[in-house]
Amino acid sequence: MGAEFIGTLGLVLGGCGAAVLAADFGTGANGTSLGLGYVGVSLAFGLTVLTGAYALGHISGGHFNPAVTAGLVAGGRFPAAKAAAYVAVQVLGAIVGAVLVYLIAGTPDIDGSEAGAFAANGYGDLSPNGSGVGTAFITEVVMTAMFLIVIMGATARKAAPAMGGLAIGLMLTLIHLISIPVTNTSVNPARSTSQAIFAGGDYIPQLWLFWIAPILGAVIGAVIYRVLLGDEEDLAV
């Protein structure tokens, strides 16, 4: 449980911290951007999962995400009896990570009506490009489904064990490159919850989507892998 707490805390501190603290520093004297931009933020999220997977994956499995836990249960890779405790610890770790980002940022005033406020996820007026609820829902379902297919494939017994964390981290980077403009990228209900708490405003009533869509997508992706691609020897339960 401690590994899931630390890993999810690290994901929020690294990924959301990069978005809040370093995404945009304005421009330099020659007009070039001084911030990471959304490509840099995408890499920050991917790197937190990559490093967390190698550092902590052998302890807890390196989920760091309620949707991943739900997907692995659906895919037969994780016992359902442990899922609720994992999810609770992940949400707690994410909230502590958000508290640290808030303190490091100097306890800023946050405009809960602004798209992407405090790296929160949203749709409609809170979407970076104004995407509606339907587009946001489909995006989160599809991105999380693809994430689970990669996770299950990269961690299968017949896969190269040393490469699993790299594949998963790079996939999360790719997901962010695709979907930051749409929803600011969730695919992780714990990460969405922690940021919505601080962003407030309409981010709270929109939080339902960033629980239901990622978990649904994770289950779909895991079932697709298990039925079409997986081997029975990979089943854990």
Give the key terms.
237 residues; mainly alpha; Glycerol uptake facilitator protein; 8 helices; globular
Summarize this entry quickly.
This protein is mostly helical and 237 residues long. It has eight helices and no strands.
Account of the 3D structure:
It is built from 8 helices and no strands. The chain has 237 residues and is mainly alpha-helical. It has one domain (2-234): Glycerol uptake facilitator protein. The model has no long low-confidence stretch (mean pLDDT 92).
Biggest sheet architecture? none
Strand content: under 5%
Into how many domains do the coordinates divide?
1
Look up the CATH topology: Glycerol uptake facilitator protein
Query: At the first level of CATH, what is the class?
Result: Mainly Alpha
**Between the first and last Cα atoms, what is the distance in angstroms?**
19 Å
What count of helical segments does DSSP give? 8
- Quantity of strands, as a count: 0
The CATH superfamily appears as Glycerol uptake facilitator protein
The value of Rg in angstroms is 17 Å
The general outline is: globular
The overall pLDDT average reads 92
Return the string of H and E elements.
HHHHHHHH
Helix content: 55-70%
In the CATH hierarchy, the architecture is: Up-down Bundle
Poorly predicted tracts of residues: none
